[in-house]
Design goal:
Elements (H helix, E strand, L loop, with lengths): L5 E6 L4 H11 L8 E5 L5 H13 L3 E5 L3 H14 L3 E3 L2 H11 L9 H21 L14 E5 L5 H9 L5 E5 L8 H4 L6 E5 L2 H14 L11 H18 L2 E4 L5 H15 L2
Parallel strand pairs: 1-2, 1-3, 3-4, 5-6, 5-7, 7-8
Helix pairs in contact: 2-3, 5-6, 6-10, 8-9
């Protein structure tokens, strides 16, 4: 018989939730330590029988998160027959939520980890957008789901962040006449690249307001129509060379443009 108390953590998923609850409870006692043994991905009665036998031999306890009723009932039946104490971690909370919401639980193992994976994909996409924003590292275009190209102030950065929340990895490259676009850009599948176009007047207005906010003169070369037309002509040549789709963002909100880009991505990857 084990000298330390033994808790068998049984789950039809990973079992992390049950293990955390057991360890949190154990931390409130002065024992030298509690032997926690996780038994994940339980899908059959045979595994339950083995756990109950072992728990009885070691005078152990069984804590479980089994959402499939048949397995849960079988464990309770076998444990009662063997005199093994059990604790159902998840069912009482599900019962309360069912009463409060009026909805039936889905009874599908592993849903919390599906949500976690979705969350981490979003975080990864956001970090990707930050890392490969404004052409900081051209190597990122190879790993991107979408590459946005366009002149300054065509909303490349906010679009990248918006699309990251849709779990898309987006890199963006600014197009400036004095700087040759990275070679990596021209080696990509053109379906991954989306050009952002804008009218000269709209861009002039946006850049002028930007200069004002920075306390600079509106007459700066950055905001002159001549300079803007030069940049847009260069940008159009690059887009034509790639052969990519383009979107005119002149009179579109970021959300509208992002949805158009997302739909293009889905169409190209369906």
């Amino acid at each position: 018989m084990s000298k330390r108390p033994v808790v068998f953590v049984v789950s039809d998923s990973v079992g992390e939730t049950a293990e955390l609850v057991v360890k949190a409870s154990a931390s409130q006692f002065n024992h030298a330590g509690i032997d926690v043994r996780r038994v994940p991905y339980v899908e059959d009665e045979g595994t339950i029988e083995e756990v109950i036998v072992q728990a009885k031999e070691e005078n152990g306890i069984v804590a479980f998160t089994l959402v499939i009723p048949e397995l849960r009932n079988y464990l309770l039946k076998q444990a009662k027959a063997a005199g093994v104490p059990t604790h159902d971690i998840i069912t009482p909370m599900m019962d309360l939520l069912e009463k409060r919401t009026g909805e039936k639980p889905r009874l599908q193992p592993g849903l919390i980890h599906t949500l976690d994976e979705d969350y981490f994909r979003k975080v990864e996409a956001i970090e990707f957008a930050v890392k490969y924003d404004d052409g900081r590292d051209p190597r990122g275009v190879k790993r991107a789901d979408i590459v946005l190209i366009g002149v300054s102030r065509t909303s490349k950065t906010p679009l990248s962040q918006y699309l990251a929340h849709k779990r898309l990895k987006v890199a963006n490259i600014p197009l400036v006449p004095e700087v040759e676009p990275p070679e990596e850009l021209f080696k990509l599948d053109k379906k991954k690249v989306i050009g952002l176009k804008i009218s000269p007047d709209k861009l002039n207005s946006i850049r002028s307001e930007r200069l004002k906010s920075l306390g600079l003169k509106e007459e700066a070369n950055y905001a002159t129509i001549k300079r803007i037309e030069e940049e847009l002509a260069f940008s159009n040549k690059v887009m034509e060379r790639i052969g990519c789709e383009s979107i005119d963002v002149s009179n579109k909100a970021v959300e509208e443009t992002a949805n158009l880009i997302y739909n293009i991505f889905r169409k190209n990857n369906s």
